[in-house]
UniProtKB/TrEMBL annotation:
Keyword list, A-Z: ATP-binding, Cell cycle, Cell division, Membrane, Nucleotide-binding, Transmembrane, Transmembrane helix
Amino-acid positions noted as binding ATP in the UniProt annotation, renumbered to this chain: A398, M399, P400, G401, A402, G403, K404, T405
Transmembrane segments: 195-212
Domain of life (superkingdom): Bacteria
PROSITE patterns found in the cross-reference section: FTSK
Region (Disordered): 1-77
GO-annotated biological processes: cell division
Low complexity biased stretches: 23-43
Protein name stated in the entry: Cell division protein FtsK
Residue intervals of the FtsK domain: 382-575
Entries under InterPro entries matching the protein: FtsK/SpoIIIE/SftA, FtsK_dom, P-loop_NTPase
PANTHER family: DNA TRANSLOCASE FTSK, SPORULATION PROTEIN RELATED
Length: 752
């Protein structure tokens, strides 16, 4: 018999058999032996004789098997093989230890939420019924006559044994005298004893009534009320309730294996259909379906060849099969298991209907540390999701209105609550969504105009230059204080080194990167900052509603560490934000609906992308937090730049020239001292895109603006005597031309 065929699985593999010692290994250059050529006849050139594993000496002497097995090897072990059960158990191949303590009890926030819910629930139910006590009393009083009737009629029936009457009637009908006489005898005995008991009961009740009547007052009322309520309860029809419903249960249906299999079978996957069809291997569940947070969790072993991703791709169809809203159905791969293990979590409530929890850092007195994890949001199960900003950059993308700016507010406000972190914030939509940052930011700009975009670019240039200084400073430090050539919390905290965290935020960054003049340079600078700034304490937070190659340089989309993708329309946008192949791997932000505001895939923080909903921080809340952050910065002495009324943004984005060059350019020949407001007006004429906004200020504002902008160059303004438009002599703030020219000479015309 051909064992190979009987064993089913055979492959052509040159496997070394135990009979052949190592030194008789096949000579691969030698010609292959002819079929049927016994190994013994030509030992040196023989190919190894393939044999079933563990079947070393069982060959037929006539060599039949040997012939049939020529060139073939059984790859399955024979049935006699006993696996090492101990090893299997220890590696957890079959058995996974289930948690002794329920996961929700181990998580403090989940446990607190459950206790809070239980107390709230009990309080509501108690209050609801307490106010309805008069109604319930009236209801019972109304039903008490019926209850009295039921008691009297029931006692009568029992005493006179009316239940057994049909038996006696039956005996009469069948003319069974003997049986009838026997039944009557029994009935008479029973009625005699029951009459005695009922009589005693009536006498007892009479005596009790007399004593209650004698007691009078409260006792009489209480007993009477209790009696009425009791009779009311007895008189309540079986299809009616005494209490109203305090909580209308919209309980989600329990998830059962049957429902899961039904839903999987509805996906239209051929392998699944084969498995669940007649004679198929079925779908198995390696663990019981359990409650997990506010939902059900099922682990499913999909049929061979089907991956968890195949199911994730069809999340909408799965939701339809489960008859649950899309926002309740969250299939995930079991990351530490095989590719066919699916973890299906089905929430009781649509994720977008769940009330967002309060951001932990809203609480007064809390501060943050960009070196540590900051709370970003919650996942489908309400568990906290955190972000660590240091050594990372973040890209947030979505279609308009999906919640980008709200998501950006969370890391921005967390960074604001770290007084050591310098903030540079540019909101290029111009709606003032991030205007709370004005209170804390070193640089701040709002608007899609060329001036703001120019300021943003100038600030990026400054940061880029700052990177070089930081790199040099870090490299100059002893190796033991920079263990991984990175800025450490200790180095960042020291003001001597100037290595404190720097957080650069650009909302609607497509306006910057797709700008016809500044876009290219901005893209190159941002890419360089993303690549090099990470280790040097510079963090870039970008949000965009147009993730395409023109609006988001590939250098950024390829190198950014943390990515948060809210609802997008297609695969391209999805992969631009989350990374290449994410769509193919089932991580699809296209499945979010319009209602899923603030919900997205967060990649780069945990090992695997996770669903998260950012904390909801509305305008007033963000303002309150920014006030707190400002106070903390004031105390720490780190409130600088825009936040204290200075505008230290370096103008001159158009061609790389500096403010000093521009001021020098607008000085007229022979002019010695010029009022600041005049200089600003001339600067605005020279470069409207850069200085136009300054020119919109009143004369005092113009003077302040120029004073602040010249400060980094070491130039101060002073009160200068001159004549105003009407020819009247007056004192106003202005500059001395010699100071500008000296500064230019000193610096050799180098931009700071
Ligand atoms: N985490 C959240 N939870 C609940 N609602 C949210 C959340 N985030 C955002 N929203 C809602 O979504 C709306 C849009 O948010 P946001 O302004 O951040 O969108 P956007 O993507 O920045 O839009 P645009 O591209 O137009 O600027 C907000 O008004 C808010 O009500």
């Amino acid at each position: 018999m051909n064992h190979a065929k009987a064993m089913g699985e055979v492959v052509r593999l040159p496997v070394q058999h135990a009979d052949h010692p190592a030194d008789s290994a096949p000579d691969l250059d030698a010609p292959a032996a002819a079929p049927g050529n016994g190994g013994a006849s030509n030992p040196p050139t023989d190919p190894p004789r393939p044999m079933p594993f563990g079947d070393a000496g069982d060959h037929d002497a006539d060599g039949d098997d040997g012939e049939a097995l020529e060139g073939r090897v059984l790859v399955d072990r024979p049935d006699t093989f006993r696996p090492d059960v101990r090893a299997r158990r220890m590696t957890g191949e079959r058995a996974q230890r289930r948690p002794i303590i329920a996961p929700w009890l181990r998580d403090a926030s989940e446990a607190k939420a459950t206790v809070r819910w239980a107390v709230g629930y009990a309080g509501h139910v108690t209050g609801y019924h307490a106010v309805r006590v008069p109604l319930y009393s009236l209801r019972l009083a109304g039903r008490s006559p019926r209850g009295l009737y039921r008691v009297v009629a029931g006692t009568w029936r029992w005493t006179f044994d009316l239940e057994s009457r049909p038996l006696r009637t039956h005996a009469i009908d069948r003319r069974n005298d003997e049986s009838y006489l026997k039944l009557m005898g029994e009935r008479n005995d029973r009625v005699r004893s029951r009459l005695f008991i009922s009589g005693a009961g009536v006498v007892g009740a009479g005596l009790a009534a007399a004593s209650v009547a004698a007691a009078g007052g409260v006792t009489q009322t209480a007993v009477l009320a209790a009696l009425v309520l009791l009779l009311g309860w007895i008189g309540t029809p079986t299809d009616r309730r005494i209490l109203d419903t305090a909580v209308v249960s919209s309980k989600a249906p329990k998830l059962t294996s049957e429902i899961v299999v039904r839903a999987l079978a509805a996906l239209g996957n051929a392998e699944i259909n084969k498995a669940v069809g007649k004679g198929g291997s079925g779908i198995t569940f390696p663990a019981p379906i359990t409650r997990d947070g506010p939902g059900w969790r099922a682990e499913v072993d999909l049929p061979y060849g089907v991956t968890a991703t195949d199911i994730m791709e069809r999340r909408d169809r799965l939701a339809s099969g489960l008859r649950r809203p899309l926002g309740c159905v969250w299939p995930e791969p079991a990351h530490h298991q095989h590719a066919g293990r699916l973890v299906l979590w089905v929430g009781d409530q649509d994720m977008n209907q769940v009330r967002p929890p309060v951001w932990p850092l809203v609480k007064a007195g809390t501060t943050a540390d960009v070196f540590k994890a900051i709370p970003f949001g919650t996942d489908q199960r309400g568990r906290p999701v955190t972000l660590t900003l240091m050594y990372a950059n973040m890209l947030i993308g979505a279609m308009p209105g999906a919640g980008k700016t709200f998501a950006l507010k969370v890391p921005l406000l967390a960074a604001a609550l770290d007084p050591t972190a310098q903030l540079r914030v540019f909101e290029l939509k111009g709606t003032g969504d991030l205007d709370f940052a004005e209170k804390v930011a070193h640089h701040y700009g709002s608007g899609p105009d060329d001036v703001t975009i120019g300021e943003c670019l100038a600030s990026l240039r400054e940061v880029y230059k700052n990177l070089e200084r930081r790199a040099k400073t870090l490299a100059g430090l002893p190796k033991d204080v920079r263990p991984e050539n990175k800025v450490t919390p200790q180095l960042a905290a020291s003001r001597t080194y100037g290595l404190g965290p720097l957080v650069f935020v650009v909302d609607e960054c497509q306006e910057l990167f797709s700008h016809p003049e500044y876009g290219k340079e901005a893209g190159e600078l941002a890419t360089a900052i993303i690549k090099r700034g990470r280790a040097l304490g510079v963090i870039l937070l970008l949000a965009t509603q147009r993730p395409d190659k023109d609006s988001l340089p590939t250098g950024i989309s390829a190198n950014v560490g943390i990515r948060f993708c809210l609802r997008v329309m297609g695969q391209l946008e999805n992969d631009m934000i989350l990374g290449t192949s994410m769509y193919k791997n089932g991580i699809r932000a296209t499945t979010f609906t319009k209602q899923d505001r603030g919900i997205g895939y967060l990649a780069g923080e945990a090992d695997e992308p996770q669903i998260a909903r950012g904390y909801y921080l509305d305008g007033p809340t963000a303002d309150r937090i920014a006030d707190r952050a400002r106070a903390a910065r004031k105390d720490a002495g780190t409130l600088t730049g825009y936040a204290i009324g200075e505008d230290t943004t370096t103008p001159g984005a158009e061609d790389g020239s500096s403010l000093l060059d521009d001021v020098a350019a607008v000085l007229l020949p022979g002019e010695d001292k010029v009022w600041s407001e005049v200089i600003v007006t001339r600067l605005a004429e020279l470069r409207p895109t850069v200085y136009g906004a300054w020119n919109d200020l009143d004369p005092t504002g113009k003077a302040k603006q120029l004073t602040a902008a010249l400060k980094p160059y070491g130039i101060t303004t002073a009160q200068l005597w001159g004549q105003d438009e009407t020819g009247k002599g007056t004192n106003r703030r202005g500059i001395t031309a010699a100071h500008i020219l000296d500064a230019l000479n000193d610096r050799g015309n180098v931009t700071p």
